[in-house]
Design a protein that fits this description.
Helix content: 10-25%
Strand content: 15-25%
Oligomer: single chain
Distance between the termini: 80 Å
Largest sheet: 10 strands, antiparallel
Number of strands: 14
Number of helices: 4
Length: 312
């Protein structure tokens, strides 16, 4: 009403003055409308759209495309081979990298090989995780009297798996298993004795065409995640988008197993683990529910874990 009265007064003014005042009033009203639109509508719509876009734009896989890759901090030869879907021994051979497979940030790696395949991998030796007896350095000119030696009081040293940016001489500390190893059923396949990593129900089966090809096993946050077989941890981190907190274990020259979406990782790279040893706590990192993303890879290729785990 006050606005209408004001405009009525303006209508009774002289023409030039009335015109000028009407222009000022129109500009003031337009400014109020713009401010109202900016504060109430645009930030709400823009903020919501930005949030939704951020959620939908989150990548669900991290394959490496192209024929080369520049090593970033935190990468290991194993994690790069895992993302590319190739055998770590092939990747090492293509780049002339020998054990213990040390790589450095900024190093450019070739991710393919145009020459003939080398299925024997003879040029690149895999890491040895068993103690090797020392050879005799000299031959005595006369028979020596055998002297009994007591058994060693300390365990054999652990072979470290180098991490980018960490000197090769820095070996990680190996922590003992925090919980007893369960004597559950096992299944021998591919030279590995496999056990179930968790006790939950399989809620998603293996599909080789999936972005993250494995099985998903349901559970509760904090449930123990255990090593499916003896091996050495070759990756422990969260650098692979879509996997969350991830642990990868090398079991022999052919087989790796991966454990994703954990709440917390309990092992370090280079640490030897036993089948049934707890390596993580179940969670939902990189997922929408509490679950374990479990994979088995043979020579770099994903395979159906249910073909290796014992039936139940």
């Amino acid at each position: 009403m006050k606005m209408a009265a004001g405009l009525g007064m303006l209508a009774r003014m002289d023409h030039p003055v009335r015109f000028l005042c009407l222009m000022v009033a129109a500009a003031w009203l337009g400014g109020c409308g713009t401010m109202r639109s900016s504060v109430v509508v645009e930030p709400a719509a823009g903020g919501g759209a930005s949030h939704d876009h951020a959620q939908s734009a989150m990548p669900t896989r991290t394959p490496i495309s192209g024929d080369s890759y520049v090593v970033a901090k935190g990468d290991t030869l194993y994690s790069i081979a895992f993302r590319k879907g190739v055998d770590f021994r092939d990747l090492a051979q293509w780049n002339g990298i020998s054990t213990p497979y040390t790589i450095w940030p900024g190093q450019r790696l070739t991710l393919s090989h145009s020459g003939p395949p080398n299925p024997s991998h003879a040029a690149v030796a895999a890491p040895v995780f068993e103690p090797v007896a020392a050879a005799s350095s000299a031959v005595s000119p006369r028979p020596a009297v055998p002297v009994p030696h007591p058994p060693a009081a300390t365990p054999a040293p652990t072979v470290a798996v180098p991490v980018a940016g960490v000197p090769a001489t820095a070996a990680p500390t190996v922590a003992p298993a925090s919980k007893p190893v369960p004597a559950g059923p096992a299944r021998a396949m591919g030279g590995v004795s496999w056990r179930w990593p968790v006790e939950g129900k399989v809620i998603s089966r293996f599909n080789s065409s999936d972005a993250i090809p494995g099985i998903e096993i349901a559970g509760q946050s904090g449930d123990p995640v255990r090593a499916a077989a003896d091996g050495v941890v070759v990756y422990s981190g969260n650098g692979l988008v879509g996997y969350g907190e991830l642990v990868i274990i090398k079991h022999n020259d052919s087989f790796l197993s991966a454990y994703g979406h954990n709440r917390k990782r309990l092992v370090k790279e280079g640490q030897q683990v036993k089948a049934g040893q707890q390596i993580a706590e179940m969670g939902s990192t990189g997922a929408t529910r509490n679950e374990l993303e479990f994979q088995i890879r043979k020579n770099g290729n994903p395979v159906d874990p249910l073909s290796y785990l014992p039936p139940r």
